[in-house]
Amino acid sequence: NQRAAVNFELHTMPVLAGMLQVDAQVPFFKLRAGFSAETSGGLLIALPADTAAAFCAELRQLDGQPAWIVGRVTANASGDRASNTADIISNPTIIDV
Q: Is 78 exposed, middle or buried (0-12, 13-18, 19+ CB in 10 A)?
């Protein structure tokens, strides 16, 4: 139900434990490129940058489960929602959970 034309810039990738070793051994796995299912899970929630860290801390306190800030939302200069993108930066932080 996204209404705005935006892009997602992903700088952090939480992945399932041990998947970095699999990615290193299997050339077509493509974990670091974001094409492996082991990078998915949970919900992606877009919040204002100044409230995101507090939300993650509260979620951990209430559920005992981790949450991460994985990127940022930027304006899509085209103004066309059909051209929205989600890109992983060239050297993302990978969290092996």
A: exposed
